[in-house]
Each structure stands twice: as structure tokens, then as C-alpha cells.
């Protein structure tokens, strides 16, 4: 009797163990079947410089969990091939829409120009270009010195807080922050400012003033004339006043007096007529 009971208990234990094992196995299989298989994401295979055109060698496709994929990611290489780069992309970084020019916008400098803006170049030297520290990504003021109407020389600020989009043929600044000379600086301006800048370059001498990128104030400065540079400069004497001739007053001659004598009987009387 005791032996039979032990066999029954052993059988029940084996059945319970098998049932538990089967249940756990099914749960693991279900979790494996519903696990995140990942999504395809386009990343940079190497460093991609600003202005470059994305080619096959520049990108690769990698699997990432959907929860870790960045918003707006590209999943197919054809979505990014041939487009221009407007922000530097490091090796292994996601290729995202904000780092690429719009489709059919081209690459190089044209692809970096936002809609409604213009790129205007001005010729510079070591002085005008602030010793080579005016580089892509910096902000400058444009000053003009001239003598309007062949009068006194004066300097005025034509444009303020203008972005530099290129220095020579470079679209990126030196990574080490070193000065780099360029004969031409290209500025990113509005169409109205493009006209002012072009006119200023023909009216006198252009000077660029480098400014802190965090300083975006518009000063609205007035023009500075030559006389303001000399504190003890005496003012020129006022021009002589023209002499005004006094009009001569012609006094008409007094009329002559006519005397008439009137006699009435013994009365005699004189009457003066004027």
C-alpha cells in the first residue's frame, strides 16, 4: 500500500513538472516571437563635410530597436543619395533631415542658401578680413567709409549681424580655430541687404567687424565724420553775411502854396491854397 502511494505521488510530481516546463517554454517562445526585430536606419560610414554630396561610400544601413531610432530617420539609402550636406556629419552618426539640403537643392554652396536668402561675395585683405578670423559660421558687421558728395569722409554701419557662409572656397571653419586667409568672403543676406552690400562696395572702402555670435543686438549707430575724431578741432569761421543795401527813400517835394487875395468892399482877406 505504501509502495503504491509513493508511485502515485511520483507520477503526479512528474506530470506537474512536465506541465510547468511546457508552460514556461511556451511563454519564452511567445516573448521571442513578439520581441522588437529592429528597424533599418541610415548612418554615416565616415566623416561627411559640409557642402559634400552624399554618395554610396558615405553611408551604411544598420539595425536599431524602434524605440531607439531618432525621429525622421531614413531607412533606405536612396532617400539620401545625391543630396547636399548642410551640417557636418560624424562617423556613425544618424543621417537626419536637418543635416541635409532639400531634395533637388543641389550640393556645395547653393545647397547651403536657405530659401529667401542670397549669397554675396566681397573682396577682402588681411585687414578687412580681420586677420583671417572671419570664417564660415562667424557673424560680422559691414562698415563703409567714403565721402558722399565729395564732402567730408565718414564711416557708417551698412549691415549688422550678418552670417558668413564661405571664406574663399571653404564652407567650414578651421577645426582648430586657427586663422585662415581668403581673398573673398561670402555673406548670407536678404535680397534687400544684397543690394545695399553691392552698392556699398562701389561707393567706398568696405571693412568687416567680427562680433560675438551670442551678441545679436542691433545698435542702429549713426555715421561718424572726420571731425568727430579730433577733440580740439576748432570749428571753421562762419561764412560772411551778404551785405544788404538799404533802399533810399525818395521824399516827394512839398507842393507850393498859392495865395489868393479876396476883396469884399472894405474887407480884404488872403486865402492860402496848397
Task: Describe the 3D structure.
Strand 4 and strand 5 (154-167) form a beta hairpin. With 274 residues, the chain is of the alpha+beta class. The strands form three sheets. Strands 3, 4, 5, 6, 7 and 8 form a six-stranded antiparallel β-sheet that branches. A two-stranded antiparallel ribbon has the order 1-2. Strands 9-10 form a two-stranded antiparallel ribbon. The chain has helices spanning 2-34, 109-112, 191-203, and strands at 39-44, 59-64, 118-123, 139-146, 154-167, 184-189, 205-211, 224-225, 258-264, 267-273. The mean pLDDT is 81. It has three helices and ten strands; from the N terminus they run H-E-E-H-E-E-E-E-H-E-E-E-E. The chain is elongated. Among the domains are: 39-111, Type Iii Antifreeze Protein Isoform Hplc 12; 113-227, no CATH class.
Rounded to the nearest angstrom, the radius of gyration is 47 Å
Strand content: 25-35%
Termini Cα gap: 182 Å
- Number of discrete helical segments: 3
Classify the oligomer: single chain
Number of DSSP strand runs: 10
Order of helices and strands: HEEHEEEEHEEEE
> In this structure, how is the largest beta sheet organized?
6 strands, antiparallel
Helix share, percent? 10-25%
SS-based class: alpha+beta
* Nearest-integer average pLDDT: 81
